[in-house]
Amino acid sequence: MDFLDPIKRRRHTIRLFTGYFLVAFIVLFSAIMIVYYASGYGITRQGEVIQNGLVFVSSQPANAELYIDGKRRNNTNTKLALPAGTYTFKIQKQGYQTWEKRVEIAGGEVDHVVYPLLIPNNLQTTSLTEFDSAPALFTQSPDRKWIVMQHAGQDGAFEVYDTSRNVDQIVSERRQIALPSGMVTAGSQGTTASWKLIEWSTNNRHMLLKRSFTVDGVAQYEYVLVDTQRPEGSYNLTRELGVNPTELTLRDKQPTNYYVFDEEAGTLKTMDLGSTDAETVANGVIEYKSHGRDELLYVTQQDAPNGSANVRVRIGGKAYTVRTLAKTPSYVLDMARYEGKWYITFGSVQDGRLYIYENPVEQIVASSESKASPLFAMRLENVTDLSFSANAQFVGAQNGTRVHVYDIKHSRGYSYNAPFAFDLGAENRFAEWMDGHRLIQSSDGNAHLFEYDGTNRRSLMPVSGQFEVYFDRDYENGFALAPRTDGQAGVALTITPLLTEQDQ
Fold first, then answer.
1. What pTM does this model have?
2. Which fold has domain 52-113?
């Protein structure tokens, strides 16, 4: 019998273990190849090992032609595996200006070029309605559905426009709302009150406004919460809270919760509508910026050396000192959350530097010296504007005509001169974030947009420089206040489609 023959048994055992070894080798090799393939590695026809990156490319409008290094690829709204390197992406569609940019693809990573916005070659601006004078207030809700105007001389009265309506309905179906009689304080006869937006609630219906007026020659102010859907539910917050602070802002963007800042006393407190109780959250405050319900970034003189001020972040009810700066009358600061991490940025005129920190509290808690190191720092004299983009990927700052943008995702900074001249009535501000990747600027009577790195600059529509430009929810139409075209004094509310007729 074969199984009793030692030689045959040995040969059988060798064949068996050889088979096991080959199977194990194939399984191990396949697993390694799968891991490498998942990491973007591949082999060229010449046998070279390369590492690919996966990139998603989209555009508005969709299905535009995509070219990479001059070669026609798929239409937009596609995904591609490309060897690591730098490429020239070009997107074009009939009737639109060509979009083009150098894009760096990192091996083994997934990137998204999903922000290209194609602008029509021929933009047509239409006047929706005209006004004899410029409105005192022109603002838009966070979801870009409502545009609200308040006209000079119509104290407490507002017009609400729905940007989601058809063009012929936007004006015809506008709503006129008015605050209840006696809600605001009467000013002296012959004087005109002015209204300033502090911020919108994220419910897209409540506006926190600061109303300035004059009584017997003395300038005064009060804070008013306007309910644009139910005006009878509005509040004079100065009366309801029993305080009239230097600044009043929404806490967690909710219409019933507030931060109350008294500049003279240096106190920052929280208060709720319907209660006169106040809780002090910080003392010695010079400047502050809130985020969410309990996250706070502020500059304080408390416990700071003479001639200095501490920059602190307050998270989870506890405050941590991030950095000590030279004391100065004003600071710029902002905070945001991006991909699960906290980012704070701040600077001052006297210090002459701009700092960006990533998860500073975690750094401080983990450090034996209770210190945090900046993610990015740069010399920036006389910084006047500082903010995160809508998606919090970018931090933008301005000093004079110089623009500085830091890309958190790719750890890359950009610095360039303002692409357009300033409009005199634009409050000496360079530009506002239009969305997550673009900025918009008023210049020479027109609105212009450009991307975070200063590229793909486009002119959009006529605009009066002191007013912002707004868009509908899908950025298919732009709305602006612009000089009237009939030769009469005043302004017109205009609409400019950002799609050609074939794409509307």
1. 0.87
2. Immunoglobulin-like (2.60.40)
